[in-house]
Amino acid sequence: MRVAVVDIGTNSTRLLIADVDHRHGSVQVLERSSKVTRLGQGVDSNGSLANDAMQRVFDTLTNYRAAIDQHNASANLAVLTSAVRDASNGADFAQRVRDDFQLDAKVLSGEQEAQLTFLGAMSGRPIGQRPSKQQPIVVIDIGGGSTEFVIGVAHTARFHTSLHAGVVRMSERHIHTDPPKPHELQALAADVRATLLQGLPEQERQSVKSGIAVAGTATSAAAIDQELDPYDPARVHGYQLQLGTVELLLARLADMTEQQRRQVVGLHPDRAPTIVAGMILLEQAMHAFQLEQVEVSEHDILYGGALQLADQAKFDLRG
Fold this sequence. Notes:
The chain is of the alpha/beta class. It has helices spanning 43-46, 51-71, 82-86, 90-101, 110-122, 167-174, 182-199, 202-207, 216-226, 233-236, 243-254, 258-261, 275-288, 301-310; strands spanning 2-8, 12-21, 26-36, 75-80, 105-107, 137-142, 147-153, 156-163, 210-214, 240-242, 293-297. A six-stranded mixed beta sheet has the order 8-7-6-9-11-10, with helices on both faces. The longest helix is centred in the N-terminal third of the chain and has 21 residues, at 51-71. The two termini are 23 Å apart.
């Protein structure tokens, strides 16, 4: 089944067009695109989506709609996450996505977002040992407005939460100088740490033995560490990212101006404004679960959405 999934996030708008065999959980990518659109700009302070931010998304969706039509995708899904959930005009924005671009737009709850993220992250992974012999794994999805944590065994999630700590939200809240001052970084880290400790039960954190990190912060870290130019998904997917590496990258990037970060090999220039907050979020998440390394994955909510489309009975995404 050929499907198209659009992820309209707080920081970026992304597209996946793929052929999916839901019986085997396989996703064959035909086209994948990403554009930093900063939809969540100002939502944390103003409570609504800005007109120029919405227009950036609409301009991107115009191109995505053309690609979907060109590939003759038989079904589509647009997932709208933290920024749209939180905005007073989020429902109107979602309706425009449906009406103007013929996309089946769903405003996901944090629970639904976590559910699809886990499904995507675990796609293509062997179940392996009997469930009784397997160790819990956490999937960490750092977004623009929120971060999702899903803990599960094999392909079954048992705990999930969506916390209001994302790269756009935390950057706007704490970083006001360029490069950021030490006290801003300390305040941001303290805010993230408190949010994680409050939202992640100790027994769940202690049960986890390994982690998978998805989305832009983690994939950027893997690409920077390998100095990838151009970006190579095959070398990013499955990359073992060490906590020490994250800490070194954070120190390096935080010492730069935004313009200098835009020149860093492996970092998309549009992620330069928020990558410092992203590295702090990833660092604090790894500390919270006492992880010395995480596996970086290209399989995220886009893959989860594609699998959901191919097996509609599995999830209820009415929104």
